[in-house]
Structures are given as structure tokens and as C-alpha cells.
Amino acid sequence: MSMADRANTNGRNVNPDAAVKDPDDWVTGDEPPTAAQESYLHTLAQEAGEPVPEGLTKAEASRRIDELQAETGRGR
Known about the structure:
By secondary structure, the chain is mainly α. 38% of the residues lie in helices and 8% in strands. The protein has helices at residues 35-48, 58-72, and strands spanning 7-9, 12-14.
């Protein structure tokens, strides 16, 4: 990765991909989804014509959002 591909924050070069964690590694992954996740998940599911499963965890909701983004073409 070149220097141009890195963000510069407070004089430090930061790899923006380093902040992206797999949902399985989230400390709060077993908690219920956030309100923002719920809202976006319902929007994407409606666009895709798919139901939203009940009782998802925060990590499961994140994975489903990723799947629905790929299916609907959002989030590119």
C-alpha cells in the first residue's frame, strides 16, 4: 500500500482497513443489532424482496447487511 492510500491522522499514517474487524471478532457481536443496523437491514431486505430474520445478533445483522448490499448493488 502506498503512502497515498493511507490516511494521515495527527501525523501518523493509518491503514483504514486496519479498523475493519470480522464480526466474529467483535466484543459486542452477541448483542442485539443497533437501531441503525435494524433500519438499514429492513431497507435492504425490502429492496431485495427478502424477509428479515428475527433475533439476529449485531454480528449476524452486519453479515446479512453485507450480503444484501451485494445483492442489491448498494454499498459499493
